[in-house]
Amino acid sequence: MTFAIFIIILHLFIATTSGFTVNLIHRDSPSSPFYNPTKTHFNRLHDAFERSFKHINHFKSSSILSSSTESKIQAQPLPNGGEFIMNISIGTPPFNVLGIMDTGSDLSWTQCLPCKQCFKQNLPLFDPRKSSTYKRITCKSHSCLALDMPPKCVGQHNNTCVYTYYYADMSHTTGDLSSETFTFGIENKFPIKNVVFGCGHVNAGRFKASVTGLIGLGGGKLSFVSQLDESVGKKFSYCLVPLSPIMTSTTSDNVVSAGKISFGDDDAVVSGSGLVTIPLVEREPSTYYFLKLEAISVGNKRIPYKGSTKISPTENVIIDSGTTLTFLPTEFYDDIVAAVVKVVNDTRVKDPSNVFGLCYNYASNVGEINDDLRFPVLTAHFSGGDVKLQPVNTFVQVEEDLICLALVGTSDFAIFGSLAQINFLVGYDLVARTVSFLPKDCTQQQ
Q1: Where in this chain does the record put each Peptidase A1 domain (predicted)?
Q2: Quick one: which of 10, 212, 237, 257 has the fewest CB in 10 Å?
């Protein structure tokens, strides 16, 4: 994906006593295991848009709508929803795994030996019998009781906690809930002990061979961030660079790093002039990060939030780095489009793919760049603070001669997507229950 899909390869690693930072590598760059040299920049863009629509579908079957046991275990459809890959080591001695980094689920897991049913993976499978720090979690432990779905108890005295997770596309993993040492850094210099994770012995679905499992970064008790101890701090932050050819002089195919992601009280701190800190709304499921959006201004015209989605009016938007586009209630979206049309002095054109409702010709009749296009700043008025969105956050070049508003109307779920987060240092604090935005040139974070 050109905007929201990135790979964390730990190409450059900086560790401190209370935090660590890694580079993000763009999913579609030649360094990525997902790289397909036959696809053009715009092919990848349209793949990203398709994943956005699939991503919103997973919320339909999530526990936002139901408190039933069956719905609670559903999370993001991994093949299309995983936005980052983390290259880490687990066990003693350290064993390399590649996990999809997922802000929409909590439990981290990897495929393990002995494997009764496994999807194909390029790396060897983790063998817990060869690790001196591996432990199974008991059924009466707090971690076992924190699982979304009631566990099974097996083994001697029926004491081993066995988890099962189903995702929205019916991919699934089943295995022993366990604890292990997770190690970061090329030289394995930053170990985090006793991380609860899933050692998956039965795993199936639309997983890629380039990954071995998942790293959960949601807001629930079993997420990786929630398990960081007080010496590190339960914080993470990321800074995503603009990759659209009209927004930056750097072309996406040549970008090695697409930003950074940091963990811990030192490295993940977000501070500086222009900082906006917004409270996260407390509601179930705790996995997702909910905000209250009160209005959006187009230039100086403030448009109040209206319309309905399947999230309540109190906590009406999910911030999700795994969705490229921003989705808003149809009535609200229509008002924003009308305001943008009044500001942009040009003729609307139809999007041939029927994805976007407002588009303009980027090239003039003689094939030159249309210099008459002037796009307004949109300000997102959240409960707690205002976030000014530059054109790089709200417009996207979808073809050589076509630029469109990167907002979409929906009756399902309002999502504040990753395009809207470009060139912000975005920080999550799971203790203070806040998300912060700091305007920043993320290209200078390389």
Answers
A1: 84-438
A2: 10
Question: From the candidates 47, 106, 148, 320, which is the catalytic residue?
Answer: 320
Among residues of the chain, what percentage have pLDDT more than 90?
41
3-state secondary structure 243-304: CCCCCCCCCHHHCCCCEEEEECCCCCCCCCCCCEEEECECCCCCCCCEECEEEEEECCEEEE
Q: Which residue has the tokens 């590598």?
A: 25
Distance CA 198, CA 88 (A): 15
DSSP, residue by residue, 210-246: T--EEEE-SSSTTSHHHHS-TTT-SEEEEEEPP--TT
pLDDT at 93 over 90: yes
CA distances in angstroms from 171 to 31, 45, 168, 208, listed in the order given: 27, 25, 7, 12
- Nearest CA to 257 out of 80, 32, 101, 73 is that of 32
Spatial distance between the Cα atoms of 171 and 152, rounded to a whole number of angstroms: 19
Look up residue 70 and give its two tokens.
């069956």
412 carries an active-site annotation: no
Is the whole model's pTM more than 0.85, yes or no? no
**131-159 confidence digits (pLDDT tens):** 999 999 999 899 999 987 778 887 655 68
Which of 102, 176, 267, 429 is the catalytic position?
Answer: 102
